[in-house]
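hiii, so i know i said id send this last week but things got crazy w the move. better late than never?? heres the sequnce for the chain we talked about at the cafe, plus the structure i predicted for it. fair warning i was half asleep when i ran it
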Amino acid sequence: MVKVRIVLGLALIVACLTAAVGLVQGLRLPTVFYRTAISLAGSALAAYLAVYLAESYVRRRFADIKPKRNKVDIISKDGIIENDELLNPTHTTPQFSPFVPENFEQISVK
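okay and structure toks below
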């Protein structure tokens, strides 16, 4: 989906520039529309090809680098009951202190 957004963004920029140049040069409207459509299709195809080739190059070049992911287990209840204040009310939670004018000394200005 990111590739499609990049391609459409580049193609729309090229089409707008083509239409603006055509209007500034005083071309007839059918000519401006024709040139804009051709530049939109051509730049979209070229941009998609460029993004596809760049992505395949990056995947081949950096194939050994894997993203670090934390395994999150959302099914088991191990460790959840001890840290959940609703299931375990004896768990101490820090007290909420609202931000009021008396608490200005908690702000650090750098």
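btw The longest helix spans residues 29-61. thought thatd interest u
miss u guys!!
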